[in-house]
Automatic annotation (TrEMBL):
Region (Disordered) residue spans: 308-340
Matches recorded under InterPro entries: ATP-NAD_kinase_N, Diacylglycerol_kinase_cat_dom, DUF7493, Lipid_Phosphate_FormReg, NAD/diacylglycerol_kinase_sf, YegS/DAGK_C
Keywords: ATP-binding, Kinase, Nucleotide-binding, Transferase
GO molecular function annotation: ATP binding; lipid kinase activity
Full protein name: DAGKc domain-containing protein
Keyword Kinase: yes
Domain called DAGKc: residue spans: 100-240
SUPFAM superfamilies for the chain: NAD kinase/diacylglycerol kinase-like
One Pfam family, short name: YegS_C
Amino acid sequence: MATSNELRVVNGSGKVSTFKLTDSSLLISRDPKKTVDVPLKQVLWAEHAQDTLHVHFLARKSKKGSLSLVKASGRIFPADKSAVDAWIDALTAKAYEGVKQRRRLKVLVNPHGGQGKSVAIFRKKVEPILKAAHCTLDVTYTTHSKHAQALAKDLSLDFDAVVTVSGDGLIHEVINGFAEHAQPLKALNIPIAPIPTGSGNGLSCNLLGVKDAFDVCAAALNAIKGRPMKTDLFSFTQGNTRRLSFFSQAVGLMADLDLGTEHLRWMGDTRFVVGFLRGIAKLSPCAATLSVKVAESDKDKMLESYRKVRDAAPPPPEAESESEGALPPLQHTSPGKGDDGWVTFDKPLLYVYAGQGPYVGRDLMQFPLSLPDDGLIDVVAQELTSRGDMLKALDGAEKGGPFWLPTQHYFKAHAYRLTPRSKKGCLSIDGEAYPFEEYTVEVHPKLGTLLSMYGRYVDDFKMQKPQ
């Protein structure tokens, strides 16, 4: 006999299966020795039709494997039919606790992103998961550069989220489209959920963690059940041009290895390692002057503050802002006069890398102390040093090891400005190429919105300070 927590069905083999609901899991038992434990967050939907129960969920075939879509079905016991609806309601309520069901999603697919497999991945893996969760999908396949930006500029504000099937470049377009929207602050309240199919998928590393960084099924689950998480955005100004950046800005070695390996997209994110090794072989100085409006530069103090925030429980999702009006005004278009916190870096540079989100790729945790909404940007100034020192930096790079290099200077900043002293060089903004000219970046606290299953970035910075 069914209860509010347990339901019996006859599976396709004619054997009895039991579906048992607990506070944290759905337990599916085919016999006493075979029980599948499905975390409730991975349950997508349950329904019954013509006396048959169907439960859709995501599961791993192995402990280290990726998630995949599973449908468990069975014929309902006649004696249990009267309790089925109540059981399904109980399961769905727990599986979607605090999260809206049947989200309405705007999906943008870039057919040319990364290795050119975005369309196939979306249709084969992602779309079936979103449909299993009964999401309403409005899908557009982008056809040209800045197509996503144009779509975001005129996007209806009633979508629950924008899902980008590509790399970080498409997110850059969407955010800048939101900035041009007739109601930019409301548009920027629409959460973005990336599906990692590009060659640069740094945001997915930070939202999903390194283990699931390229798991498109885990990313689809985030689009279905992630909660809105406010994040700082950055104004990038160059001459009379203002753009928003959500992820990173790079000059010197780090920009060269990104933009200089576009022809190696077929390698996936391995191309960045190849680019790094090429850059170390050349070891070209970065001819630029860096000025920073510093909030903190003491690594020990920054680490202590970071740990206090990370040790605390993630804050609950903020209520959706009803803000009207334009983007925040610029405050730091030029370094102020006198002692107001602006510092000029006075050592020869190999690269400058600034941004937010600990990981810039699976192999490099460049900003280990980054927080989504601390109102600051993390700025790394790497001194020109020996090839041997830079090769040593590869050891533990995926865990934030370079943070402790004496030649790697780390700032928490309100703003910074970079002035090239040469006409030759690369500038990468969120992985996109920009003119190698003077620019300023400043922080806008909590201007952007992402979806997150965790309410924070997923990282693991445990590298101890060398003795």
